[in-house]
Amino acid sequence: MNPIPSFLDAVRRRLDRGVASVVGARCLLAAAGACVLWALAWRIFGYAAPWPGYAVAGGAGLMAFVIATLMSKRTATQAAAAADEVFGLKDGLLSWLGFQAKGSEGEVFDLHERSMAAKVAGLDVAAVPVPRPRRQYGIGLLLAVIAGGLAFLPHSQAVRDRLAREQMTAERSAEVKKQVEEAVEELIDQLSEEEKQVIDPAKLRELAKQLEETKDQREAEKQIAKFEQELAKAMQGLEARQDEAVLKLAAEELAKSSLADVRQLGKQLDAKDFEMAKQELQDMKPGAKPKMTPEELEKLKKNAAKAKDMAKRMADGARKRDFGKAPKPGNHQDAAEMPMAEGDQKPMQEMLDEMDAEARQLGQKMEQGEFDPDAEAMAGRMDGKMDELGKRLGQMGARQKAKDKLAKLRAGMGEARQFSQGQAQMLGLAQSMAQGQQPGGLKPGQGSVESRRKERDELKDNGNLAQLKGQANPDGPSSNSVESAESGTGIAGRAAVDNKREFQRQMESLVRRDDIPEELKLGVREYFERVHETGETPDK
Amino acid sequence: MSATATTSLESDAALFAERFQTIRDEVAKFIVGQKDIVEHVLTAICCGGHVLLEGVPGLGKTALVNTLAKALDLKFGRIQFTPDLLPSDVVGTQVLSDRDGRRELVFQRGPVFCNILLADEINRATPKTQSALLETMQEKRVTVAGVSHPLELPFFVLATQNPIENDGTYPLPEAQLDRFFFKLQVALPDHDEFAEILNRTGGNSSPEIKPVAHGEDILRMGRTLREIPVAKDVQDHLIRIVRNTHPENEKSPEKVKKYVRHGASPRAAQAMLAAARVKALLDGRFHVAREDVDAVAPPALCHRMILSFEGEAEGIKPVDLVKSAIRGAY
User: Fold this and answer.
1) How far apart are CA B11 and CA B224, in angstroms?
2) Are residues B36 and B141 in the same domain?
3) Which residues of A touch B13 (CB under 8 A)?
4) Is any Cβ of chain A less than 8 angstroms from the Cβ of B277?
5) For residue A80, which residues of chain B lie inside 8 Å, CB to CB?
């Protein structure tokens, strides 16, 4: 039996073992090195090394070992070359393989095979050197031990704190989302039908759904800020500045009326109490109907007179408005985001003019003393015009209320932001909205003048007054010293005059702004009046 | 393939080695040292090739050829090449002769009609005369006046040239150098060899060289060695070596690319293969090994590589280039 093939096979297997040994050592080195680098990379940033990295490196090392071993398997030619070199066969086995592959036959090939077989028979395959990379295995194991040791080190304190913060942010952002959704649902439930026409509930729900749970505090704040911004845009869309400006001017004219009801209407319009104004307007309607009793006719005449005065004054006041400077209705970029934008309605000016015209006609008719069907029709048309105005006022009232509700929700976002930042322990959006957006303490303009403070000021209770009571100081008595300004000559110089002018200018600009609540304006006005009560009262 | 009794090829191979060794021993009776030179010359003779021996005068070149001729029992001829030597002085010429009262031109053989020809100081003859000899070396026949006269086989030319006397010489062209199987540098003997030379030649008697082989034996040895197979891997190795001597080959060593103008020809590969077979047979193998090829590469390749100007200027030795070509073949 020819021993050459089995000999070559044995050599090949031995070489494969050697290759596997080398590849195994290198894979171990690589995997252990990767684990150490992995662990160090995490440790540099203060983290404990995650175990999955070790698993991946180990798996990859194992896979690399299998693939490299399979790919590095020695061929018979390589085994023959190695055996020739080790046993000094001078390319005998390599030539034998070549002759076999070529299918060479003949006397010389027989001789060659016989001579090679004779040489191979006495050879021990164990003489083929197999590399044993003990050093690489040693280093690999050492690295593996180091990597394992690194894996047991915990997170650094800073990382633990950061992770805790992230966890808190995630929990709080989830809480914020939940509460915002609840608050939105509650707000939607509270909306009247008229308010629902100006606030789109679906849009609100969509905005609330855009809030997402996040570990990133900045992202959480960004989301809240965006939600707040969207609310602001929605509020902007509910503005009816042009109509309000017209009604403001109309109110000024109404205030000059000799009729108490008309003046009352003027006050309500001035205070933007559109619901009451609507009611007042309803009361002033001529109330025409067929077959009126003499008392009813008398009332109609009175109301017609009131209506005429009211309509004339309102129309006159409205004409004072400089429309060239007024913002165009519905010009807000985001006004279309909410329904019932101002621009799709008849201008207030036109409505008042029409009402004035109707009132004049009705007044002339009534002065003639007859109440014929024409007068009844005119009174009916006047009722219609006043109903139209009342409806507009109702809508404006609804817008105002909706805006107030959105403002409450928006104000709650500040609390939500504080909560997400960890500055507040609890978040109660629903309670905040129920209590309103007003700050606690004195009303605007009531405080700040220490020397004139009453013994007990009436604080506006927003539920947070308990926080104003202070805390007991266990280390000693709390400070009760009063710091007062140094006394001076008391002579006002140029600087004081300049200050006065500046205050006046600021106040004037403040009270002209539309986006500041009336209550605040009144408070500011009151403050300045109180500040200057010893001197001249500043102009409005 | 199965084990059989001793075959004819096996006995031929054994005989080859035995005869080779016998001739070498017989030559060694007179020639002191120069073992490699003797082995390479014998190798070339077995392979039917010609050898160019280069060395300073007095190193025993002529004595080696003389001794070989005696040991091989071959007809020996010698031509001392000089500048006035004519081709007809080498190959022979037609002379007018009377035969039975008729005068006719008869071809008179020149000294080339022998088995072993010593072309002494071949580079002193004119190129025309050199080419007349070299054509004979290649064709192994002489053509005069349109008539071919075959030479008796085996036919070997052992040419010598002196590397230090360049005045009045005609260096062999590359094409003619290529026809030499080997070019061997005959080195100065060492101290002991010197002493032995003096001992052997200083007395009244000189060693008697007996014929230990004949021309037919040489031809048979040539047939035997051509039976030795070469595996593809070994043959590829040989080809890589030869190709590595060419500067235009991409895989050639940088030294070759820089210092060589022309590399070795396919004839060089043939010479290397034949010589490697002799090595294998002498080693008792029936296959050629890469080390056989490596061993015969320098004498077969050095004279076939033409150095570039840079190579000549820097005094690069062709043997170093051949060694780098061998290294590049692995």
Assistant:
1) 10
2) yes
3) 111
4) no
5) none
| Interface membership of B4 toward A (CB under 8 Å) | yes
Of the candidates A90, A99, A117, the beta carbon closest to that of B229 is on: A99
Whether residue B183 is found in the same domain as residue B198: yes
State whether B199 and B238 are in the same domain.
no
Bridge partners (DSSP) listed for residue B102: B99
- Residues 198 to 217 of B: which have CB under 8 A from any A CB? none
Alpha carbon A212 to chain centroid distance? 9
Domain CATH number, residue B137: 3.40.50.300
Do B119 and B166 reside in the same domain of the chain? yes
The DSSP secondary-structure symbol of A461 reads -
Q: Which amino acid is at B100?
A: D
Taking only the tens of pLDDT, chain B with its 330 residues reads 444 445 688 888 888 898 899 998 888 888 888 888 889 999 999 998 999 988 888 888 888 888 888 888 888 888 888 888 898 888 888 888 887 888 888 888 888 898 888 888 888 888 888 888 877 888 888 888 888 888 888 899 988 888 776 777 888 888 788 889 999 988 888 888 888 888 877 777 777 888 888 888 888 888 888 889 999 889 999 999 999 999 998 889 999 998 999 899 899 999 999 999 999 999 888 899 999 999 999 999 999 988 889 888 888 888 999 999 999 988
Task: Please list every residue in chain B whose beta carbon sits closer than 8 Å to the beta carbon of residue A112.
Answer: 229, 285-287
Tokens of A517: 């609540």
- Would you call B229 and A104 a contact, using CB atoms and an 8 Å cutoff? yes
Q: Is the pTM of this model over 0.80?
A: no
CA dist A461 and A464 (Å) reads 7
CB contact under 8 A, B285 and A114: no
Any idea which residue has 């290649």 for tokens? Answer: B138
The one-letter code for the residue type at A1 is M
| Domain boundary pick from B174, B203, B227 | B227
Q: Residue B97: inside a domain, yes or no? A: no
Could you tell me which chain A residue has the CA closest to the CA of B284? Answer: A115
User: How would you classify residue A471: left for phi > 0, otherwise alpha for psi between -120 and 50, otherwise beta?
Assistant: beta
Separation in Å, CA of A96 to nearest CA in chain B: 8
The Cα–Cα gap between A165 and A218 comes to 12
Q: Which residues of B touch A91 (CB under 8 A)?
A: 231, 233-234, 287-291
Nearest residue to A422 (alpha-carbon basis) of A201, A203, A170, A134: A170
**Residue B144 and residue B106 in contact, taking contact as beta carbons nearer than 8 Å:** no
**A–B: how many Cβ contacts below 8 A?**
75
